[in-house]
Amino acid sequence: MLSLLAIAVVVRPQAAFAGNGWWGGPGESGDCSTDMSPGPDGADVEITIGNLPPSTFDEPVYVIWNAAKKSKVAYSPLRDPAGAEIVDCFRRAYAKAGKTGFNGGKVLVSATGEATMRVHAPATYKGHRHEHGRRDPHVHFSICGQRGKPKKVDFTSAGLRIRGGCQRSRSAPSAVSYKVISAREISSNTTMIVASDTDKPESATMTVSADTDKPDSAIEKNNQEESADLDALEFSSVYGCLDQTQLFDQFSSSCASQCPVFADVANGQCVRKTDDAQNEAVIEATWRLGLDCNDKCWNDAAPVARHSVRLALADHMDITFQEAGVVRLRRDSSSPATLAHLTVVVKTRRLDVGSRFACCSARRRFGSIC
Questions:
Q1: φ and ψ of 105, to 5 deg
Q2: If you write DSSP's letter for every residue of 294-326 in order, what string do you get?
Q3: Burial annotation 301-332 (CB, 10 A radius, 16+ → b, else e)
Q4: What is the dihedral of CA 138, 144, 147, 150, to 10 degrees?
Q5: Distance in angstroms (rounded) separating the CA atoms of residues 164 and 142
Q6: H-helix or E-strand containing 176?
Q7: Helix runs in the chain, H state only
Q8: Which of 67, 126, 287, 344 is the most buried (most CB within 10 A)?
Q9: Bridge partners of 348?
Q10: Share of the chain above pLDDT 70, in %
């Protein structure tokens, strides 16, 4: 798993998943084994996932999942995923655990690393501000207690596809990706083709950069790829507030109807005031990251991780995330499966020279987890 994703813990999760023990955490009881459920009553689809971290007698592992509420338009997720009801906003597509319409569950992973998820045929929804059209119907899932963005199973016209997630098996020399073992529609027992891991994901994959710095045009291309990654936008705290026609307050790390009197408004965010009289501060830092990640996991995780880093930097410095203009991830050429390098460059007139060094020093505390 790309360790960098742990940096996202400094950014508040989306409201659709926040305050909800079904996403990554053990819930209010502090115990992952509570609130067990095989899925909603009358579920339409059954999906078995493999290569998950296996449960042992001493360390049971639980998988949690949630999909959009049941589509009001009847359709076959396995044969005709394009037939799903389209909700205008993801925020209205999901129900929380324990609420009417919740389309998820939690089960124990087997000793062989397998788990079966059951869901109603889920609705789908449009991308951020409708700029990216409809999304494929999908199911988000996570290992209870594991940090980072949930993984995903997509229902596509080419078959079922899984995005994200890998772990080092005891029997394998390198990391192995989570995989869909089987899928069927429960009422008709219709089975589903599983898309190849080499198929292109829903959005552009990330090309590993060379050791040299990228020219501006290449950086802009990566930024465009990041913004085109629909999961990066869906799990972005800033875009979540904008979708509610609110501002994102970098000082409180939450949505706001207006900014504090001491703040400026820029790109829909409440941030430090700019000082045009001072020189632009340039803050640059590089970290070496530990990885346990294969090619597929890297391509699935890197765009979202880069956006999470931008959000974390902005949240820490109380600036716009756009001012973190360069967030570059590349795998180490000599050890691409175990090492990577993260370089960030922030250019801003919102911080004086003294603050600049304080911010750099404070950011070093993330060096061990990103």
A1: -175, -175
A2: -HHHHHHHHHHHHHHHHHHHHHHHTS-GGG--E
A3: bbbbbbbbbbbbbbbbbbbbbebbbbbbbbbb
A4: 0
A5: 10
A6: strand 175-177
A7: 216-228, 230-234, 237-243, 295-317, 353-363
A8: 67
A9: 281
A10: 71
pLDDT at 221 over 70: no
Burial class (CB in 10 A: 0-12, 13-18, 19+), 11: buried
CA angle (160, 165, 170) in 5-degree steps? 115
pLDDT of residue 15: 35
Nearest to 241 by CA among 268, 271, 272: 268
Cα distance between residue 366 and residue 142, in whole Å: 23
- List the structure tokens of 82: 């394009």
285 three-class SS:
strand
CA separation for the pair 109, 111 (Å, rounded) = 7
User: What are 328-358's pLDDT values in tens digits?
Assistant: 988 888 888 788 899 999 999 888 755 544 4
Q: Point out which residues pair with 2 in neighbouring strands.
A: 291
Q: How far is the C-alpha of 80 from the C-alpha of 118, rounded, in Å?
A: 18
Task: Please spell the DSSP secondary structure of 342-358, one letter per residue.
Answer: EEEEEEESSS-HHHHHH
Q: Identify the pLDDT of residue 220.
A: 45
Nearest C-alpha neighbor of 53 from the set 111, 129, 139:
111
Q: How far apart are CA 245 and CA 353, in angstroms?
A: 34
Do the Cβ atoms of 270 and 260 come closer than 8 Å?
yes
Predicted local distance difference test score (pLDDT) of residue 20: 41
Which amino acid makes up residue 231?
Answer: D
Pairwise CA distance, residues 160 & 244, whole Å: 31
- Residue type at 317 in one-letter notation: M
Closest CA to 166 of 21, 295, 307: 295
Classify 364 as helix, strand or coil. helix
The contacts of residue 131 (CB under 8 Å, 6+ apart) are: none
CA separation for the pair 235, 16 (Å, rounded): 9
Distance CA(338)–CA(2), nearest Å, equals 9
Cβ of 189: how many Cβ atoms within 10 Å? 8
- For residue 212, what is the DSSP state? S
Q: What's the rounded Cα separation, in Å, for the pair 156 and 136?
A: 6
